[in-house]
Each structure stands twice: as C-alpha cells, then as structure tokens.
Amino acid sequence: MKNWPWAILAPALLFVLIGLFAPLIMTHDPGAQDYGALLTGPSGAHWLGTDYLGRDMFSRIVGGARTSLVAMAFVLLAALAIGVVIGSFAGYVGGKTELVMISVIDIVLALPSLIIALALMGVFSGDNFTWMSDYWKMIVALTMAWWANYARMSRAVVVAELQQPYIEAARVMGASHLWIFTRHILPHVLGLVVVYASADAGALVLAIATLSFLGLGVAPPTPEWGQMLVDGMSYIEEYPSLVVIPGLALTAVVVSFNLLGEAFALQKVPRAVRGRFLTRKKVARAAEESARKEVEA
Amino acid sequence: MTDRESRGGPAIQATGLKVHFQTAAGLVRAVDGVDLTVARGAFHGIVGESGCGKTTLARALIGLQSATAGQVNILGRDRAEWARADRKGFARAVQFIFQDPLGSMSRRQTVGQTLEEPLQIHGQGDRAARRGRVAELLDLVALPATVLDRLPRSLSGGQRQRVSIARALALSPQVLICDEPLSALDVSVRAQIVNLFARLQAQLGLTIVIVAHDLAIVREVCSAVTVMYLGRVAEEGAAKPLFDDPAHPYSQALLSAVPSPDPRIEAARPRILLEGDPPSPRNPPPGCRFSTRCPVVEPRCRETEPALRTVQHGGAAACHLADARDHAMI
Predict the structure, then answer these.
(1) Which of A2, A24, A207, A283 has the highest CB neighbour count under 10 A?
(2) Do A172 and B167 touch (CB under 8 A)?
(3) Are the beta carbons of A166 and B95 separated by less than 8 Å?
C-alpha cells in the first residue's frame, strides 16, 4: 500500500467519523421543534437553517449520517456474512449442490435489488411480522436483496483458489477441509469481498434513503436523509435548501464511497503491470550500464 | 524409520492399478494396469516419455488421483482404507513433492509459515518447539535461516524446491513420492537437489519414489527403475544392470538418448531414433503397445500383449522377444 492514494479515504472517513460522533457534533436535538424559527435561513443559531417544523437542519443532517451509517453497517455486515457463507459453501462443495445454489444466486441477481427490497417490505407489512419494527424490516429486506453479489464473488474466488496446487499440497499434509478453508481460502475471499463492499457502501446508503423516501424505511422522528427529502419536497419552490442540503449530503457519500472503491480497484490491477514495467526498466538500465563499461574498457 | 530394510515387505505395492479419465474425446487410459513394487529404503525412479502416465501413476499412489481399478498398499496397509480411517496418520507416513514448488505453496505465506503449517495441522509441539523443528528442517535442506520471512515468489527455483522438500519432511514420513521434482529447475540446480535427495535418503532411511524425465539423474542416484510406456510398465529392475543392458526395445531407445559425460563414450554412443509419436492413450494398439514403433516388431507382437517376464538383468520386461537368456537388440 506504499503508493496508495490515501487522500481518497478522506471523504468516506469523514462520513464515518461524523456518523460515529454525531451526538457530539449536533448543535441541537434533531427532533426538537422551534415554532419561533420555522423555515429560517442559515444563521449563527442554526448553521444550515431550520425546516418546516423549526428543527435544526445541521443537526438533522449529522443525525441522518449516523442513521445511514448504522443501517448501512448492519446490512453490509449481514449481507457479507450470508454471501460469503453461501457462496463459499457452494464453491467448496461443488457438484449438484453448487448448481442449485448458483441458480438461486443468479435469480436473485437478475432482479434489481431495490425491487426485491420493496417486495419484501410489502411482505413484511403483513400481520405475521408485527413483532419487527419498521427499521428492522428495512434492514432484513435490504440484506436479503444484497447478499447475492457477495455470494457470487465468494464462490468465484473459492472455485479459482481450489484449483491451485497448494490446496492439494495442504490435503497431502493431512489438513482438514475446515483448515484448508479457514487458513487458505477465506483470506482470499475476504480480501476481494471487503474491497467490493467498500464501493458498495455508497449504493447501500442510497438504497436506505430511497426506502425512507418511499415511506418504507426509517420512521419519521429519526433524522434520515431520504425522509428529509420527502419532507422538503412540498417546500421545494420557496425553500429549495430543504431538498438541496440532504440531496448534496447523499451525493457526497455515494461519490466518496465510489471513489474509494475505484481506488481499490485501480490499485489491484496495475500493480503487476507496474512491477513488470519497473523490472523491464531495471534490466534496460543494467544492459546500458554494462555496455558503457565495455566501451570504456 | 531409521533402519532401512526393517520389518520386511515392500514400502509400496500397487496391483492392477488403472486410472482412466472420461474426456469429451473418449476414455483416456492414462494408467492401464500397472503392477509396481517399491522396496523399503529404495530410491525408485519412474521414467518414460511425456504422456506415458508416470505422473498419473505417482498421483494415484498417494491418492491425489482416484484409481479406476486396482489396489495400492503402502507399508503393508491398504492406501484407500488408511487415508479414510486415519488421514493424519497417513500424511505422517507418506508425503508427496510436487513438480511446481511455487504453485504448491501458498503465495501469502512466508517460508516460515509454510514449514510450520504441517506441524500445526498435526498439533505437534508448542510454538517454540515448532520453531525449533523448522530450524532443523532448514538445516536438513541446507537453507539459511534468512529465508524464513520471505515469500515463495522471492526465492530462487532451487530454494523453492528445497522449501517444498523441507515441508514434506516436516512430519518425518517414511515414504516420499516425488512428481518430477527436478523439471522446474535448471540443470546446475538439479544436481544440487538430486544430491540433497540422495543425502536425505541415506540420512533418514527414506523410501523415495521419483518420477523423472532426466534419465542421467535416474541412472546416477536410483537403486531401482520402472520404465513406463503408454500407461503400462515396459521394463523394471535394479537401476545399474537395467541401464547397462536394457531388455525391452523401448528402454533401449529411451536410454540411448542419455548423453554420457565421457566424450569418448559420447562419440561412439549409438543413438536409436524411434519413428513417430506414441499412440494415443485413448486408443492403444492391439498386442504389444510398443508394436507401432518397435524396430524389431514381429507378427505376434501385433496380436498378443506380452506379460512381464524375467530377463537377463534380473528385472522384468514386457517383450515377446526377451527371456531370461536373450533379448532383442536394436
């Protein structure tokens, strides 16, 4: 990671830090309504103004960052765990089991994940699911819409890694399947999947906002960017800042995670090229040197 | 494991071993009925040209390749049953060395981790004891301790093969099966590794089976040789007499390809060039498998397949024209 563009981490890191320390950063209670200051512009008391209920926009944006971060982390971790387990199992076991599992994964992948999440939210709205809060319904729905990509990637890595001769060597040494998987295969799987997840985080923040925007995700008192967008919609002509501010926040997060993913991806590809390029240069330089010495001699 | 000719019985005994592959183009008979006996403490070479099934045979001996038919006994115990009932015990008794040392090691693990892994798998010793054993192993294969923290890709070819040998020796096996351990190395390094094998065998009393291309090396170090042709044993016997007077026309041709270091012998050395390529193992010829290329072929060779019979040098050859007193010369 010597030549890694560390600066690219900054925007995503900023989002994570804001989310983690939201209670310390917020200047007001994001739920507190101030009827004396409805729909005001930026001021010393309210850095980004107030919304139609007199709530402090800055605190709501910061609180929204935390809501997004926490929900995103839940979904990402759960989707990653489920995806890695299912995908690795399919890849390791092979045969008909793998075929069946891969078909299921492909079917899930064929449908847009947001559509799956919406359909599941519909199912969860039934009487059988009253024990789950809307928040957890959203988390579960998004997880079930999101795992398939990780499963497919994990399987691909496992299958590729299993063909390596060193796996055979480990078997000759008497290693159990569990040993081979945890010691040799899992690190490769996690290496790839975590990189992909870093780019995926932005898309997930957007999906959470989308569900909340549609009224299916985070319930109103909790500050949430998608929710803020809906609330601001009715005032878009007179007070566009109510929509623009959460919109910009969302855009910034999506872009920052995309940049992060891009940096990882770019780092992965050209390293070999760079290495080879350097050796070629080195060889050329050595040849030049020896030629010069010969001439001198 | 220290006394070389202990407890009688061969180290490896394969009977009627067959490995067939079903491919799109038909059934490939890579190994087609091989009987092989490797004595305890022997340095047994398996030679033959590319595609004759020697690698498949080596892999089938240790179970990396499941056999279509036949049985393998290692140290007097049925291999399949042993590996199933006691995977780790089997691994401690029999080890395998791969052709490509780089591929056979995890590219993420340092040499130290690679060498420690078999000890960890078998729960041998604590951290300090394992470290000590790893140091011992490095000594055994004459590698400096400085390689411990390096990754396999930053080692030279010879060092990599030394590491893979050290790893195979970590569990103190009695039998070592090597699949062309020398082909990935250049000639100067080959000699070092061969000497290492010979030294280890003398030092540890190992039984070593080595699949090799390089006949000169087999002649130099092996005590017994099996010559394979098209999935079958063409000739077998003790190395010296077999190399001096091969009875099977194929062995004669194969061994005539070995260069001699002595320029006088080299100048006078007869060279036998065989016509054509070996037939496809998908569809071996009727009768003797070598009949399509044999310079001294007779009509009966094309009809009935010769069984292995005792020949002059004391080993056995699968040739109609060979018997205990005489054999064909080409």
Answers:
(1) A207
(2) no
(3) no
Q: Which architecture does CATH list for B61-213?
A: 3-Layer(aba) Sandwich (3.40)
CA-based Rg of chain A, rounded to a whole angstrom? 25
Site from B84, B100, B121 to mutate, A interface, most A CB atoms within 10 angstroms:
B121
CB A145 within 8 A of CB A118: no
Residue in A163, A166, A180 to test binding to B, most B beta-carbons within 10 Å: A166
Residue reference for tokens 């890849």: A91
Q: Please name the residue of chain A whose CA is at the shortest distance from the CA of residue B176.
A: A172
Q: Above 60 in pLDDT, residue B311?
A: yes
CB-based contact (8 Å) between A272 and chain B?
A: no
Check residue A276 and give its pLDDT.
53
**Which among A172, A174, A184 has the least Cβ separation from residue B106?**
A184
Residue of A164, A171, A173, A192 to mutate when probing chain B, most B C-beta within 10 A: A173
Inter-chain residue contact B118 with A174, CB threshold 8 Å: yes
The CA angle A120-A125-A131, to the nearest 5 degrees, is 105
State the pLDDT at residue B145: 92
| Range in A39-43, A71-75, A92-96, B8-12 the model is least confident about | A39-43
User: With 80 as the cut, is the pLDDT of residue A274 above it?
Assistant: no
* Domains along chain A with CATH numbers: 9-296 (1.10.3720.10)
User: In chain A, which among 233-262 make CB contacts under 8 A with chain B?
Assistant: none
Q: What is the mean pLDDT of chain B?
A: 88
Does the pLDDT value for residue A260 go beyond 60?
A: yes
From A122-131, A136-145, B80-89, B253-262, the region with the lowest mean pLDDT: B253-262
Q: What is the mean pLDDT of residues A259-281?
A: 62
Please give the pLDDT value at position B88. Answer: 93
